[in-house]
Amino acid sequence: MRAFELILGMNSSKAAIVGLGRMGANMARRLADTGFEITSVYDIRRDVAGALAEELQAAAPATLAEVTASADYVLTVVTDDAAMRRIFTTPGDNLLIGAAGRTFLNFATVSPAVHLEIEKAAGAAGASAVEACMASSITQAREGSLYLILAGDPAVVERAEPLLAALSSARRYVGGTGRAAQVKALVNMVMNINTAGLAEGLGLGDALGLDLTMLREVFAQTGANSRVLETDGADMQARDHACYFSAAHAAKDSGIAVALAKEAGVNVPLAGAALAQYRRMIEKGLGELDKSGVAELTFKGRGV
Predict the structure, then answer these.
(1) What tens digit of pLDDT does each residue of 288-297 get?
(2) Which pLDDT band, with edges at 50, 70 and 90, does 136 fall under?
(3) Which terminus of the chain has fewer CB atoms gathered within 10 Å of its CB, N or C?
(4) Which of 78, 84, 75 is nearest to 30 (CA)?
(5) Tell me, which fold does domain 182-297 have in CATH?
(6) DSSP per position, 101-150
(7) CATH no. for 3-176
């Protein structure tokens, strides 16, 4: 008996995925591995969708309405507010055409306001929407060990639990729609500050002639320790910026947090400084490097 049948008791819920970047494609593979029926995959890059559809023996429809028609659950993993609005509200073809009874699981990091817009529009179409913000990366997406921050109608979240469990090792429900996006923005705000700070510490250490392997070991045993030290420290030292979470995404997410702070009347100078660094990376053509690439701005002699 397949894994999802053990959970669902022969209820063969069908899933489709919209947005086939590093995260979305690996989430689709994970669901297929655990026995969910992947009915269709969609991306604006038609060649990418076609290749993954062939791999998973799924369809690669030309329209978003066809995606919705094929599935009970539609997972969206797109880049930003504009992309979310485009897939849900474009006249003539969008995911809400014929969407009655469907559930949309929205994994992208976008602004809380957009999640609220999508929930309202989905409800008007007779569908449901859940925020499922991810605080993990590509490896976890493939392995099904994502950490998910969930928000929305608790009954809808509970109904989607088997699928969410297949993708994640831990989940935290934080409240009504918009709350998960707020929490995720703060997670990434702090992470991005830590990353920029680590780059400055290692860059200064390098300029002083310190052994950076020793310095990272000392950091790990003191108040300078952080999860970012574990994930990015060696990469900064080695200039290995293979992308797991891009500088462009870091800029987008820190921008969301800084905007929330402005709305709340809270001063966040460190978040603003980190945002400026990631925007500088984009200006210098480094936006598709991993966020660890911020070290290229702080080490002397790296030529950027």
Answers:
(1) 999 999 999 9
(2) confident
(3) N
(4) 75
(5) N-(1-d-carboxylethyl)-l-norvaline Dehydrogenase; domain 2 (1.10.1040)
(6) T-EEEE-S---HHHHHHHHHHHHHTT-EEEEEEE-S-HHHHHHT-EEEEE
(7) 3.40.50.720
